[in-house]
Specification:
Structural class: mainly alpha
CATH class of the largest domain: Mainly Alpha
Radius of gyration: 23 Å
CATH topology of the largest domain: hpI Integrase, Chain A
Order of helices and strands: HHHHHHHEEEHHHHHH
Helix content: 40-55%
Number of domains: 3
Shape: elongated
Strand content: under 5%
Amino acid sequence: MYQTLDFVGPFKDELTNYVNHKRSLGYDYGKSMTARLAEMNRFFREQGITGVEIPKSVYMCWIQLKENETTSNQEKRYCAIHGFARFLIARGYSDVYDAENPVIQRNEFTPYIYTEDEVARIFNCADNYISGHKPIFFDNSRMIPVLLRLLYSTGMRISEALAIRLCDVDINRGAISLLDGKNHVGRVVIVSVSMRHVLDKYIYTTDFCGDNDYFFHGYDGRPYTVATVRHIFHRILDKAGIQRRLSGKYPRLHDFRHLFAIRALEQMAEKGYDLYTSLPLLCKYLGHKSIIETEYYIKLTKNQYSKLTDASYKYAPRLFPDMGVSSHE
């Protein structure tokens, strides 16, 4: 349940309208977001603003990088004022300044696209994974192989997979209900026949007390945490001989989602689907709110997936810029 909004000053009504508008679109404007907006509202009042206006000088002062501050905090302030300014402009306010981010230089992040051989090695190491110490709370050797295969074969987010309960899994239909995904977008994910067999065997060999039990749970019923799965996944990558990236970081669990999006589109292209048909289908399957989000997942794959990018060029010529980079970095 959201807390009661309590803004003061000249922006009181419009800030309330803005938050309610965002929530109506499915965005999670809870305590952290409203606190950021309240901080911005206090800043406006300190700057002597008495009406619904945002001068350029105030805008630039708000987004200026502070001493000993990280750029991530700076970007949060920018997102707050940028979104609110756009909302005010759309409502007809003329004395509102807004601009694309003039301070933070974003670097395009390239997801790690696992090869078929790497995926096979990951699954093999997961199937034979033995923890360095006796697992007290979780049976990693049985749960992790199933969880990784589920992420790979469905493209669901790790947070969504760990929130699944036994009652959400319909083995007969091969369907998994994700009731509250990112931005509160729920959906039903249909799994392949082979994945359904994996899930069926897992249910048969796992102790469940009731339908409301978490699907991936420990001996005491608690669900796995993202941090726990990520730690085990890094150990599996080491055993599979998959090196860290140039940045020093491991390839991510979330990169399975990128890989799924790419291969799903490839398969649909091979079956004769055009992107006007396949992109909306994939958008709904992944739980995205717009096709723009889905396009992000299939970007940056030019070298390794030429057939897909050639088809995408006909659909949207500027979707795949010539980055001059490899498929992994």
